[in-house]
């Protein structure tokens, strides 16, 4: 029933968006335009500007994000709408409003400058953040993002930059580190072919880049350079992901379970937030709902079941690459040493 209501709302909003855009297009770009529009059409143009600057952006944002509308995203779509209005409305009618798109672009430019200032602030405070992480002896994978949020802010751009920093750190600056083992640490990947799968992908990308780059280069230099840069970025990400998986096994510390599977996803589970844990066959037989359950199961050539499924008392937030976040009510985990992990959890609870 909920899905039907969501679909109905989506199509209603989409129809309203087409109605707003279509009616304005017919008003200014049809054979009836000279007949319908009066000589003094300023009030009509004002109505169209409201459509493009407020109504259409809100409809687009509700179609894309539902209730999660930010000021920046609204202003961006508002500027796009006003620029579109400038090209849609004939110059004869738009002459009194030429300053409107320019003012909107100026506001967008101020937002960009504000974001650049945030980047500069992050660069200035980054050495201090790194020193703090080292002094705490914590994994950068779990501590960098909260440290950036506390020191600079939780702007999406900052989260993206933090994710990129983690990727380059693990890809280039973590090779002297040894993965922790034993005690409260539990690896998730050693009994799978995940690392081998990543190595195969890296080899395939390198071979594809070497073989195809020059052929594409002859057809389009720009496209070949873009493809080369994307391939290099992908290889760096895979290398960083491999190192992140190796150096960040699941660990239990300060009555919390820290679990991650590479750069892609991670979550912190407080012991007090655990409602129930299913082990062994009971966990294997449970049907996993991807919307409710976050899975930490290393990829293999066949689909493997979890060793345990942890149910939370209330939804917990998981962090993903590029700063994305999502709440879950369960976590499905497959470990290399499930019996030892169960023994530790039983002692902690």
UniProtKB/TrEMBL annotation:
Transmembrane helix in keyword set: yes
Coiled-coil annotated spans: none
Protein name: Beta-carotene 15,15'-monooxygenase
GO molecular function: monooxygenase activity
Keyword match Transmembrane helix: yes
Transmembrane intervals: 41-62, 74-93, 99-124, 156-175, 195-214, 221-240
Secretion signal span: none
UniProt keyword annotations, A-Z: Membrane, Transmembrane, Transmembrane helix
């Amino acid at each position: 029933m909920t899905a039907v209501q969501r679909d109905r709302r989506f199509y209603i909003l989409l129809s309203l968006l087409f109605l707003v855009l279509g009616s304005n297009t017919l008003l200014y770009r049809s054979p009836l335009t000279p007949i319908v529009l009066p000589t003094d059409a300023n009030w009509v143009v004002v109505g169209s500007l409201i459509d493009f600057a407020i109504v259409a952006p809100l409809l687009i944002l509700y179609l894309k994000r539902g209730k999660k509308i930010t000021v920046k995203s609204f202003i961006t779509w508002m500027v796009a709408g006003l620029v579109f209005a400038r090209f849609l409305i004939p110059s004869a009618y738009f002459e009194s409003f030429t300053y409107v798109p320019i003012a909107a672009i100026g506001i967008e430019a101020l937002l960009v400058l504000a974001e650049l200032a945030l980047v500069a602030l992050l660069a200035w405070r980054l050495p201090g953040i790194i020193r703090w992480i080292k002094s705490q002896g914590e994994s950068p994978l779990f501590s960098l993002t909260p440290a950036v949020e506390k020191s600079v802010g939780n702007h999406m751009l900052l989260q993206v930059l933090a994710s990129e920093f983690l990727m380059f750190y693990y890809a280039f600056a973590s090779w002297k580190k040894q993965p922790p083992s034993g005690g409260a640490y539990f690896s998730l990947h050693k009994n799978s072919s995940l690392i081998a799968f990543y190595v195969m992908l890296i080899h395939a990308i390198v071979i594809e880049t070497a073989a195809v780059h020059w052929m594409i280069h002859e057809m389009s230099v720009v496209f070949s350079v873009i493809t080369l840069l994307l391939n290099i970025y992908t290889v760096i990400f895979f290398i960083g992901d491999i190192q992140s998986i190796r150096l960040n096994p699941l660990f239990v510390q300060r009555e919390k379970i820290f679990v991650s599977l590479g750069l892609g996803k991670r979550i912190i589970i407080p012991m007090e937030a655990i409602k129930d844990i299913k082990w062994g066959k009971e966990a294997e037989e449970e049907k996993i709902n991807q919307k409710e359950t976050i899975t930490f199961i290393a990829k293999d050539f066949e689909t493997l079941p979890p060793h345990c499924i942890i149910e939370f008392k209330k939804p917990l937030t998981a962090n993903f690459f590029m700063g994305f976040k999502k709440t879950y009510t369960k976590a499905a985990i497959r470990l290399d040493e499930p019996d030892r992990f169960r023994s530790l959890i039983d002692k902690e609870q």
